[in-house]
Amino acid sequence: MPCATRPRCHFLSCRPSAVDLESEAFAFIWIWFQSGRVKLLPGHRCHDYADLCRRWKLATANLGWKMRKLCVAGGDPIWWIESSRAAAGEPAFYVSAGVHGDEPGATEGLLRWVCQSGKKLADAAVVLFPCLNPTGLRNNTRVDYRGLDLNRQFQSLEDEVCVAWRKIVTPRTFSLCLTLHEDYDAQGAYVYDLSNLSQVFSRELLTTLPKRMPIDARPKIDGRAAREGVIHRKMAPHIAEGMPEAIVLYQLGCPAAWTFETPSEFSLADRAEAQAAFVSGAFKLAPAILNPGSAR
Ligand SMILES: [Zn+2]
After folding, report:
1. How far is the CA of 122 from the centre of ligand 1 (A)?
2. pTM of the model
3. Structure confidence by residue, pLDDT tens digits, 84-125
């Protein structure tokens, strides 16, 4: 069966052309057989939370940063990172990933940005949450260890992850907040931009992504009006089923909260590269967002 007719074909490593898949039962046996020989999701390294934490510990040690425990959820420690300049009270660049476990391009991209940035990042004001849903990442699921969509819990004053998260973000000042996600329906990269600045900075930033990651040019994305890959809102909407992280960050006073999305059907390498590139560009833009000349 051609890959184009098989949704989520990257789960199958795009190899079925070598085998005549006569039935779904045969396909299942083929996948089971192949999974013993090659790394298929969720056995892929990107879904190995312990391995992700090991790689983060190496990266942060290299920068002189410490990983700090946010809380334990579902038996897994959740980590966060604060650079010394952010701890000293400077407005910080905020990035989180892994709220949805089936979006590994985000978790890999954030770590890639840190590794690619090298020592120059050590002196920056940053607050990072590398993976807020470890069980979901391990299981390759959107939901967390309770079966809940964590990105509809951030208004909660009882949720163990979101309460711990709120204690950290509430007293701090941020220059720009990024929440990194992926979307199965996306046809390219796009941004949900919550800001009331002098210009929509995220639109230009999208044009700087690597060539292998197009902009999602649909006029409507996720049911919302979009232009050149950006869904822009000046007012934070109310989401009846629960509030996403980015909206709560905006309500708490962050001047710009951007949710960056890459298309899950693209290759993991391209998605991670695009995520890292977007974080890198946003990091460079963050001072301009705080600059009185360009801010509201
Ligand atoms: Zn998501």
Report:
1. 28
2. 0.85
3. 999 999 999 999 999 999 999 999 999 999 999 989 899 999
Q: 26 CA to middle of ligand 1, Å?
A: 32
Separation of 33 CA from ligand 1 center, angstroms? 30
Q: What is the pLDDT of residues 119-157, one digit of tens each?
A: 989 999 999 999 999 999 999 999 999 999 999 999 999
CA 182 to ligand 1 centroid distance, Å: 5
Residues lying with their CB under 5 A of ligand 1, a single-atom ion: 100, 103, 181
* Centroid of ligand 1 to alpha carbon of 81 (angstroms): 21
- The CA 17 to ligand 1 mean position distance, Å, reads 31
Structure tokens at 15: 């190899």
**Domains detected in the chain:** 3-35 (no CATH), 46-290 (3.40.630.10)
Question: 39 in the Ramachandran plot: left (φ > 0), alpha (ψ -120 to 50) or beta?
Answer: beta
Chain-centroid distance, C-alpha 289: 21
228: left (phi over 0), alpha (psi -120 to 50) or beta: left
The b-or-e profile of 222-234 (16+ CB within 10 A means b, else e) is eeeebebbbbbbe
Ligand 1 centroid from CA 1, angstroms: 29
d(CA 171, CA 132): 20
pLDDT at 11: 31
- What are the structure tokens assigned to 78, written together? 């959740």
What tens digit of pLDDT does each residue of 11-39 get? 333 344 454 546 656 665 665 666 555 55
Q: Tell the burial category of 174 from Cβ atoms under 10 Å away from its Cβ (0-12, 13-18, 19+).
A: buried
Alpha-carbon distance 266 to 214, whole Å? Answer: 11
